[in-house]
Amino acid sequence: MLFSPLQFLGDLLYPDLCLACDTNKKMPADIWCASCAYKVSIADYYQYPNNKVMERFYGKIELHRAMTLFNFAKGGYLQNLVHKLKYDNRPEIGIALGKLCGGLLATQADYDIDVVVPVPMHPEKEFKRGYNQATLFGKGIAEMLNCRLSTRDFIKTKATVTQTAKSRAERLENVKDVFYIANEAALSGKHILLVDDVITTGATLEACVDMLNKIPNIRISIACIALAGG
Ligand SMILES: [Zn+2]
User: Fold this and answer.
1) Domains of the chain and CATH, by start
2) What DSSP designation does 183 have?
3) pTM for this prediction
4) Are 119 and 134 in contact (CB under 8 A)?
């Protein structure tokens, strides 16, 4: 886990600073300031069946729909926000972005979701971090879609080593056979929304969808916070 003493000190001294720009005061009960809220650029992927997120998975896995809330720009304030969610113990960021995403999906007939399923994290890693950020994002979405959040039906049974310095083939091999369907009956016949934080290679999502697609009469869509290189 990355720990930044300066960040920690900053949070203690300035608890009301915007979590995106670290400069302005954030709006009450929100994660960012008025300026960042105004600047935020939502990707319109949720409105279109054929989009850049779907393209990432063409010919690899079978999906109903796929979207991300943002395009991920390196060094931007979104990266700052996602970094805080992953490493700085800021669970409220996941919930807030989930609600934002769920509010958009609720306007789309194509996202007639029955169950939100976060990409599982190994229990040891989740314990160390204090939460699974995908679960928080999923929780916000499920609340807005008024549907069930499932954290026990699909689980991770093996810890995987970090993906960053591997080739595509190695990454796929790395995530193969690490997920497990613990309760098929709970997911059978349902439209599943698989959720995660940032889509980089997509290898983890591919492995999850490969596995989940073995369940009878299942439909799978994907919603993530951001698309890297989008
Ligand atoms: Zn701000």
Assistant:
1) 1-40 (no CATH), 41-228 (3.40.50.2020)
2) -
3) 0.89
4) yes
